[in-house]
Every structure is written in C-alpha cells, then in structure tokens.
Write a structure and sequence with these properties.
The chain has about 700 residues and is α/β, with parallel strands linked by helices. Helix content is about 55%, strand content about 10%. The chain contains 18 helices and 15 strands. A hairpin with a 6-residue loop joins strand 6 and strand 7 (about 160-170). Helix 6 (about 170-230) packs across helix 9 and helix 16 (about 615-630) packs parallel to helix 17 (about 650-655). The longest helix is centred in the middle third of the chain and has 90 residues, at about 310-400. The protein is flat.
C-alpha cells in the first residue's frame, strides 16, 4: 500500500480540511486576527535588544557635552535682592490714613518685574558701565529700548522678594551692575511718586474753582424748576399714583383671565355635545340628565331585544328615551345662553378697567417724568456740593502726604562678587545630556523595533499561520551565534553543566512529538518535513532535536539533510562534509544506505547527509526523492527531513509533497510575518499536511 494513501486532503471552501489525523485551515484572509497591541514588556524587550545602540548614544552625547562645556568661556553671576512691601500706607494724614494691601500679589509683583527691565531703569546703568558697547546688536539699535541679555529678574516662589541677577565675565562687574540696577529702580519709583503727587495737587486746584461755579449753577436750576411745577417735591404724589396704578393693573389682569376662561367655556359649549357642558355652571343638572339618558338607552336596548316595535313596552321605552333626550338638549341650550351672558359681562368689565388703567397710567407717566427731572436736578446739586467739600479736604491732605509717602520697594541684600563661575555647569550639562540621550536612544530603539515587524510571541504566530498546534521554543544561549555544522559539535550541542535552556528546549520538542503520536492514532507517521521561510531560523536544529526525540523512544529514525544549499546536519557525526549521501544516492552513484552515518550512541538517530551536491542535484531530487523515501520507509520508522529556505529555493516544494507531516518554523525577532504568510499560502496550495507551527527563540 502506498505510504501516502492514508493521508487524504479534502479541501472545503472557508472551512478546515482534514489531512490525516491533523486539521488543515484555509488561506488566511481578511478576517485573520491582527497582531496584538504592544505592551510595556515589548518596549522593554526592544530596548534590551538595542541596548548597545542606546549605550553608545549615551556615551557619545555625554562625552561631546563634556568637551564642549570645557571649551565655553566662564561667566560669573551676582544677585541683589529687593524686598517688596505688601502692605504700604495709603496716606499719612486724613481720615483715609491706614495700610493698603495689594489685592493680587502675583500681579503686583509681576508689574515690578516688568518695570525693572524697562528702558528707563536699565539705560542709566548701561551707560555708566558701557554695557551697550559690548553688544553689536545694541550698537545698531542705539535709539531703541535697552535690553541686557545677561540680566535675569525673577521672584523666588512664595516670597515677596525680587532677585536681580547679572552675568558677566568679571565677578566685580556683575555685582556692581546688579546693585546699580536695584538703586536705579528705587530712584525711578521715588521720582514717579513725587511727580504724581505734585501733578495731582496742581490739577485739583484748577478743578476746585470750576466745581464751585458748577455747584452754584445747579442750585439755581433746582429753584427755577420748583417754581415751574408749583410744588416742592413731586415724588410724594408719584407714590400715590403708583399704588393706584398697581391695583388697577392687578384688577385688569384678573379680568383678562376671567374673560379668557369664559371664552374657552363658551366656545366649548357652542361647538361641543351635551357631554362637553359638564364643565359649565349647570354641570350637575346636565350630568344627571346624561345619566338618565344612559339608563333610558340601556332599558330601550333591553326592551328592543325582547319585544317588537308594536309592543307597548317597546313604545313606552322609546317615548322615555325621546323625553330624556329632549330635556338634555333644552338644558344644553340654556347652558350655552348663560355662558354667552357671562362672557359679555366679563368683556364689559375688562374694557372699563382697561380705560381706567390707561388714564391713570398717562397721569402717572407725566408726573413721573417731572419727578425724574426734579430728582436729577436735586442729585446734581447735592453731588456738586459734596464733591466740592470733599475735594477741598483732599487738596489740603495731598499737600502733606505728597512729601511723606515712601516707595514700597527697598534693598534687602546687596550683590557681592562670587569667585565661582556660574557657567558652564559641566555636571548639570552632562546630566541633561545623559538623560536626553537615554530617552532619545530608547525612543529610537522602540521606533526601530516597531518598524521592523517580526514575530515575538506564539500568539502572533498562531494568528498568522492559522494552525492550532503552535509551540514556542525557548532561546538557548549556547547555540546563539553558531552557524554551519559547528552548531552540532559536542560541547555546543549538549551545553555546559547547569545550563537549563537546552533541557527546556528538548522538553518542548518531546511534547511536540507526543502530540503527533496522540493525534496520529492507528495511522503511523513516517515522513516529517521541517520548513521555514528563510535562513537562520533554527530549522535544522528543530529537525535534529525532533529526530533525537523519536530515536529516544527506540524507534528507528533517519535524519535526512535535504538542505542541498547549506547542509549542516553531518556535524552530528563528522567535523567535515562527507562525499557520499543524499546527492550521490539520487544520482545513482551509490546506494543511499552506503551514505548513512549510523548513530554512535544508542537512542540516537541515523543521519543521511546531503553529500556533495552538483548542478543536477536539485533536478534529481525533484524526480527521485519520493522513491528514495519510499524505500527508506522500509528500514526506518520515522524519517525527518531538513529543507532549504522555502521561499528562496524550489526543493522545498518537492520535500513538502513527499511528507506525511509538515512543521512550519519561524524565529522570534527574525522571521517577518509577510514571509511566513507567503510560505503558508504555498503550503496550502499544495494541500500540505501542516501539523504544527514552531516559534524558535521565543524566550523562557
């Protein structure tokens, strides 16, 4: 019986297809799961992988910063401190003497900070110390405002102090300039205060004369208006008319409300049925008639159901119904007439109240206008008189207070030369460079890792492959960086004593072997092909360890190195590549049994190396690989095939066609998802029995 007969493929659209004991999934389409969102652990892993990049950037940045800081010229700072009096006396003489507290101290201090940097304060100091001659920009803008780039004015937090700091190449110059700026500012405040009070006194004397004339004129106008209206105070009569107008307004509003209610009732009665009149004044009578009508209708219906029209009971019930209906209609007409009469009455009352209200309102408006004019004239006369008296008192007090007020700012501490340079601050610059380069390096590492999308976890591999059996193999430090047959040398292959990575790796391989055995059932798996999209993904290592795992069960196992492009599996037995092997067997030069390297230790697999491939080897493998495997299946229980990179060379297609099971291998941080998905699409087009997906080097 053919070895492949037990492995049938039944593809079904958009549904899994059975491949022997395993499940084949359709091609990955639009509904495939996306990559998991990056977590903090992913970012830390990216930084760890690029740690030498980050460290190099940090060292370069700190070194460059240190060299530049040593080359910069030294600058010295000196600081003078001003104390701002939060509670300054508003005046010293008069009823308003006391302490004035700034309502918003932040704005108050911000004003002083801006004034300290004004041209009026800085120009005398700059001219005294020839500071404008040291800056070419100030020479070109000699007529503009003075700016001192070396000056820094700030307020220490939660204080009422202002610090004036000046930086210069000479420590004595920096202290002198800071002290002179503080003195110049205090002199400027004092001159502003004195000029303000002297100007205010002169202006107030002129206003006092004009105010006296205005006061006499307003008193004369008030007397003439009183003679014109014939009363002393028109506001008294205005109050009486206002009360009367308010009462009429309330009566008029109630009349309007009554009229609206009557109109609504009348319209309801006029256009409705007798039942609609239940809300009128005759509601009780109408309600009784409606109830009688209902009883008569009920009785008539009962009689009609028993007797005919010629029967006396029928005629009596009909007469009673017509009598009650006539009484109801008559009562309804009376209700309509009464509602119409009440409506006319309330309309007449509303019209009378409206007329009285308008007359009273016109009289009140006329009197109110005169009262307003009288009030304005009286207020103007009183205001002019009180303003004249107040201003006369203020003029006398201002003459005294102008010479006694002090400035709210005083020097709390003078600046002194400091022999220690303020800049460059080499430790601070190096610390900033260290932090900045560290952050920039970490961000660059994360961005580089994000743009360089690779598999990181088994979940990502499962989402890309669609294969439910996904195995994550741990990274082994002893095998890292080993290439060629050197990776299978004794010391490297077995690791050092105490190395825990290799036992964990091989335990995962045994678990994968047991899964194959459990799902295979009565069908015996003979040929297992291990494929991966590219090179350096651990494909040969997985094949070698899987073959060793089967051999450990005392199953005769042959490990076939079908990677004709870069064979490495002969390293398990020899340090050099043998001349005989798979290629010589395919060409007919030797028998395949002559090229087998038999295991030197029990429970180890035999190895069929690739031999010496030539230009015809790939074509011979396409034609004769199935025959060779069929013949080898008679001698061995399990055949494990290593293969070249699947997307680069064509031999992978021939190897997959000859296999009972296919294991797709990817390496964490190396394999690109697009390449792996392309390989999976090829495998599914070939109806390859994909049994598992393996993520190599996924960590512990």
């Amino acid at each position: 019986m053919n070895r492949k007969a037990a492995m049938t493929v039944v593809p079904v659209d958009n549904a899994p297809a059975s491949v022997g004991p395993f499940v084949m999934y359709p091609m990955r389409g639009q509904g495939a799961p996306a990559r998991n969102a990056a977590t903090l652990g992913d970012y830390l892993d990216a930084i760890y992988r690029r740690r030498w990049w980050v460290l190099s950037a940090v060292i370069a940045a700190v070194s460059l910063t240190y060299l530049v800081s040593k080359q910069l010229p030294r600058q010295y700072e000196a600081t003078a401190t001003l104390d701002v009096d939060r509670a300054s006396p508003s005046s010293l003489v008069g009823p308003d003497n006391g302490t004035q507290v700034a309502p918003d101290m932040d704005q108050f201090l911000a004003t002083h900070l801006r004034m300290l940097q004004s041209d009026t304060v800085l120009r005398p100091v700059a001219e005294k110390f020839h500071l404008l001659e040291n800056t070419p920009a100030q020479k070109q803008a000699a007529g503009g405002p003075t700016r001192l780039p070396a000056l820094k004015v700030n307020r220490p937090p939660n204080t009422y102090l202002i610090q004036i700091t000046y930086r210069s190449a000479d420590p004595q110059t920096s202290a002198s300039v800071a002290n002179w700026i503080a003195k110049s500012y205090i002199d400027h405040l004092r001159s502003l205060r004195e000029g303000e009070w002297s100007k205010l006194a002169g202006t107030t004397n002129q206003q006092l004369i004009a105010l006296k004339q205005k006061m006499e004129s307003s008193n004369q106008a008030l007397l003439e208006f009183q003679r014109k209206i014939g009363m002393v105070d028109p506001e008294d009569k205005t109050n009486v008319l206002t009360a009367r107008l308010l009462q009429l307004n309330m009566d008029y509003a109630r009349a309007q409300s009554d009229r609206a209610a009557k109109e609504a009732a009348y319209q309801t009665l006029r256009g409705g049925s007798p039942e609609a009149a239940e809300a009128s004044t005759q509601a009780e009578q109408l309600k009784r008639l409606i109830e009688r009508k209902s009883e008569a209708q009920q009785r008539f219906a009962d009689v009609k159901a028993v007797y005919g029209e010629s029967h006396s009971e029928y005629q009596r019930a009909d007469a009673q119904l017509r009598d009650v209906d006539g009484q109801l209609k008559a009562a309804y007409r009376n209700a309509v007439k009464r509602s119409e009469s009440e409506l006319q009455e309330v309309r007449l009352r509303e019209a009378n109240l409206s007329e009285m209200y308008m007359k009273t309102k016109a009289e009140a408006d006329t009197l109110a206008a005169r009262a307003v004019e009288y009030r304005l004239l009286r207020q103007r006369a009183d205001a002019d008189r009180s303003l004249f008296d107040e201003l006369s008192r203020k003029v006398g007090e201002a003459a005294i207070n102008s010479g006694l007020r002090t400035t709210p700012v005083r020097i709390a501490d003078t600046a002194r030369p400091d022999p220690r340079p303020a800049s460059p601050n080499t430790p601070l610059n190096c610390a900033v460079a260290l932090l900045g380069s560290l952050i920039a390096g970490c961000v660059a590492a994360i961005v580089h890792d994000t743009r360089n999308i690779r598999f990181r976890t088994a979940e990502e591999l499962r989402a890309a492959s669609g294969v439910p059996m996904t195995v994550a193999l741990p990274a082994v430090k002893a095998w890292r960086g080993r290439q060629g047959f050197a990776m299978f040398s004794g010391e490297v292959n077995d690791g050092k004593p105490g190395d825990t990575d290799i036992p964990k790796f091989r335990e995962k391989i045994r678990m994968l072997r047991n899964e194959f055995a459990e799902h295979a059932g009565p069908q015996h798996v003979r040929v297992i092909a291990v494929v991966s999209p590219g090179a350096g993904e651990g494909r040969s290592r997985v094949a070698a360890e899987l073959a060793s795992a089967y051999a450990a069960l005392e199953q005769k196992t042959l490990l076939v190195d079908a990677n004709l492009r870069s064979p490495v599996l002969h390293g398990l037995q020899l340090a050099t590549s043998p001349r005989t092997g798979l290629c010589s067997a395919l060409s007919g030069e030797t028998r395949w049994r002559d090229g087998v390297m038999y295991a030197s230790t029990p429970k180890s697999p035999d190895v069929l190396p690739s031999g010496a491939p030539d230009s015809r080897s790939c074509d011979l493998l396409h034609r004769r690989l199935a025959w060779l495997l069929e013949e080898a299946s008679g001698d061995y229980d399990v055949l494990v095939l290593d293969s070249p990179p699947f997307l680069r060379f064509s031999e992978g297609l021939d190897i997959v066609r000859s296999a009972d099971l296919v294991i797709a291998v990817a390496r964490a941080g190396v394999t690109h998802p697009r390449e792996f998905e392309a390989m999976m699409r090829f495998l599914r087009r070939l109806n390859a029995p994909i049994a598992a997906a393996v993520l190599n080097g996924a960590g512990n």
